[in-house]
Specification:
The protein has four helices and four strands. The chain is α+β, with helices and mostly antiparallel strands.
């Protein structure tokens, strides 16, 4: 399995994100329990609204497919999804994520 950095760029609908955040977090936690979502979280308040998800998958297409049922995506709260393979090389978490 490879590791993919999946980024979300959110729409301007912050009220929609607030409404669906609890089920979004459950969805990502369940992916984590299955060893798919290795780590995820939103970008800081000074950045454009969005998030980073580190997804373990066998291909880019599979990484994106793993997020298709995310309530944020199903409810049109994600304007753009990008995916890039990411290879952890150095640092405290590199061994855990590789």
């Amino acid at each position: 399995m490879a590791l993919y950095a999946v980024t979300y760029r959110y729409t301007d609908d912050s009220a929609g994100r607030d409404l669906h955040r609890p089920v979004h977090k459950v969805f990502l936690s369940e992916l984590g329990g299955r060893g798919i979502n290795m780590c995820s979280g939103p970008f800081g308040p000074e950045d454009a609204p969005g998030a980073l998800l580190l997804i373990s998958a066998s291909s880019r297409d599979e990484a994106v497919a793993c997020t298709e049922d995310d309530p944020f995506r199903r409810h049109g709260l994600v304007a753009e999804v990008t995916v890039r393979e990411w290879i952890p090389m150095l640092g405290r978490l590199a061994g855990e994520l590789a």
